[in-house]
Amino acid sequence: MTTTTPVTFERHPDTYRHWRLTVDGEVAWLEMDVDEQGGLVPGYELKLNSYDLGVDIEFYDATQRLRFEHPQVRAVIVTSAKDKVFCAGANIRMLAASPHEWKVNFCKFTNETRNGIEDATEFSGQTYVAAVNGSCAGGGYEIALACEKILLVDDNSSTVALPEVPLLGVLPGTGGLTRVVDKRRVRRDLADVFATRPDGVKGRTAVDWRLVDELVPRVGFREKVLSRAHDLAAESDRLPAEQGIELAPLEPSITDDGIEYRHVRGAYDRPNSLVTLTVLGPEGEPRLDGWLLRLTRELDDAILRLRTNEPDLGTWVLRTEGDPEAVLAHEEVVLSGKDWLSNEILHYYKRTLKRLDVTSRTLIALIEPGSCFAGSLVELAFAADRQYLLDGPPIDNEHSLERASITLSEANFGVFPMGNGLTRLESRFYGDDDHLTWLARERDRALSAAEAVELGLVTDAPDDLDWEDEIRIALEGRASLSPDALTGMEANHRFVGPETIETKIFGRLTAWQNWIFTRPNASGPEGALRRYGTGQKAVFDRKRV
Amino acid sequence: MTTTTPVTFERHPDTYRHWRLTVDGEVAWLEMDVDEQGGLVPGYELKLNSYDLGVDIEFYDATQRLRFEHPQVRAVIVTSAKDKVFCAGANIRMLAASPHEWKVNFCKFTNETRNGIEDATEFSGQTYVAAVNGSCAGGGYEIALACEKILLVDDNSSTVALPEVPLLGVLPGTGGLTRVVDKRRVRRDLADVFATRPDGVKGRTAVDWRLVDELVPRVGFREKVLSRAHDLAAESDRLPAEQGIELAPLEPSITDDGIEYRHVRGAYDRPNSLVTLTVLGPEGEPRLDGWLLRLTRELDDAILRLRTNEPDLGTWVLRTEGDPEAVLAHEEVVLSGKDWLSNEILHYYKRTLKRLDVTSRTLIALIEPGSCFAGSLVELAFAADRQYLLDGPPIDNEHSLERASITLSEANFGVFPMGNGLTRLESRFYGDDDHLTWLARERDRALSAAEAVELGLVTDAPDDLDWEDEIRIALEGRASLSPDALTGMEANHRFVGPETIETKIFGRLTAWQNWIFTRPNASGPEGALRRYGTGQKAVFDRKRV
């Protein structure tokens, strides 16, 4: 099952097919009510609140709108609108029929949404509560795990479960194993029992094992849940807000050759398997809800579309165009803001940069005259696998005095940490505190090619005579390499130093899952994932690897 | 290529085919001189000091004997006896022809040996120096990376390289990517250039990029290297020693049904895909070079044989037999020793437990009357995925008053850390410092079934009526699950909390490598690994996953 229609990622609550978002003062209800016939592509029914990418895209949309359009919300209750079922997890028939790259990309996006929920709880004072009002399995329990609290209905039948290993021969794909032991600190032997038991755990045992926080009787369930949500809302440190801002449609212009937004242009070069993503700097007077927010939304959307719809474009060339001073002026309005909206914009840009960090494409930054790699936008370059700076005039105008530069700002020193908890500069100069101190002194001025080389901010700085050849060779060289080896190599190089739940999910859990997805024991004709629901038992090669 | 002859892991310097070990006072030379015709199995030639499992088994043997038989050694020089080539890495034809599980197991063993070199440097005061006297590629450079210092001959031609990605479409398999950025702190964009450049980096650039520590002219190379080794030996904190102890042959008794050493018995149950490993407690008077050292050597050997030769035995049942008091008395002699040999024995037992932690087999500890799970031996139970304790008399003697127990000792509180730097108890009760404090107060006495349950030390404690059924169901249930899903699940559950270079290598790098090994872009008929050396270019599916 692949989709020939490109997947889009913009949604609106008015037209959700699978969720109901209701805001009531400081508490929002996010109710899952999956339309069985509403699969993103044909070939499966979304029974028992199981989900596919389309369901999760709406989920993501809701979490974003809660942060921007409903700033008064301080607690979000995730529950099901169906009777006796919370969520059965990712749809198995969809997974079984999907090609490998679709499964992997689907898991990545759903993981990012779960991480976003935790981000909202930690940094936005919008605390998520899972109100598990029926059976809750696999990806369903992983949604609950992403919430700060898990309340389970005490009805003597509803369970939480991670049945992927025993029923499907794969791992829970959205952080389940990691969050069980690392976040909820379930003892590893109990985690082992739990993750190999297809029927899961209910009631008191679920509490004792720390799989859920509290049991709530079925009678009065919603009232009790609401009361808990108000308790959490009362503890929230969310900044006060009167009204939100609307996330209006982005309306990019789309052709076979690319995609254009207001501040982001993507130009496809299919013969060379690459796309050039150009970010345009701001114009006009800085305003809080202006350029940076819009740019972030566009970049987010472009990343998601390219990942899903353009798997053959293996290299993303990152460029900028504009005035570095304008970038600094515009970002300053947001960086200096002490209000809820500034906070949301900065965390949203942070999350979007994190998407780049885990994108399985080669990222090459080209820093040329006319570019505006300053402050927030330098993070794009630091997210890249390499940075090339043109040390000379523009290629098409050798008499120009314009030169490329990089300008660091406070934005590069702690505002946008990576998943490993380090800034991109700290990752780049891992353990070299002296150099980081030196760099902090070089903020707020344009660094020349020679300075950027000296400071280790770029991989190379060819002059205008060498530039085109060197870049061409680098890009052609990259396109000739094994895409799989590049994905593994980049995933290892990008995250130096400490690990977090987030990096473990993307680095370790995902890598094991990818391996398992490719194995005949899961995806072969007699594999567990393919045979699930057929009544036939899977046949395994019993060799341990 | 599989071997039908079981692989053995005991070697002796007198009969090495691929290495020369020369000890000269405080410095040892370990010279690689691979016999091209000496492959472990037929079908490839070990050209250019490339290695296979057989070469690495000798390497491991040398590192162990240096620690025990040559305690006066404080620095070890790893170099090549061949002209102009240090080591070309793992043999490609061997890898290309190997089944998946062989490749993965081979990488695991070689990784453990590299980690052991770092362990010798850090904890034994035997500091390894790589004297790179010729071209050094792939696994060759990864041997150098495991050393504390890398000295590269300055001859205008010798390079260090990680050519796996560009030439083979796989990752460096023994920690290369991780050690480059995490240990040597090479900037990630330079690491990216380095790992995609098939011809590597030489001379000044290799020093500037931190890939090597120092250039040494060809003239006087060995003298200069020796001088550096003496400098490092002078800084070593190795405890003084007059003479070593011999690691005599273990001489296990081997049948189709199992393997028996003096203190370790492995009994195979092939129909149920399991092996019962029984560790026997000590007898007689405690002596420093007695039971624990011998047990460790036997356990180490048994783990390696089972992993390599018995991939179908997916569950290892861990048992002990003996007197818990005797275990404590014997371990006390080693734990209280302040000499070099006590130190070596404890670190060796630590490394052997770490082998268990990364073994891709389900580990189930059975704690029965007559067992001796005390102190050091409790670590075997804590290394297991589950622990079952029989709460009642022995199954075959219902009138007996003998009961199973667990006895914690100082051995469980810091002596044998896992790869993540935590003790197994700290991993088990991750973040629960109060409970760890409580446990520390419960040391040095036999804990009953009820106490073990109360303290969370066992998964379950069935009584004698339920025992056989519960264990049978647990083992049969395990055997019915997908071996791949179990491997991934266990690898994720076992390492909670912080990460180290070691856990990154086994958890993240290995998982990505395993995935890449299964992909057609590497191992398919047109894949890069299979086509290497044929003159034909690999054909890639360009989709990024």
From TrEMBL, chains A, B:
It comes from the Bacteria. Its EC number is 4.1.2.44. Keywords: Lyase. GO terms for molecular function: lyase activity. Pfam families: ECH_1 (PF00378). This is 2,3-epoxybenzoyl-CoA dihydrolase. It comes from Amycolatopsis halotolerans.
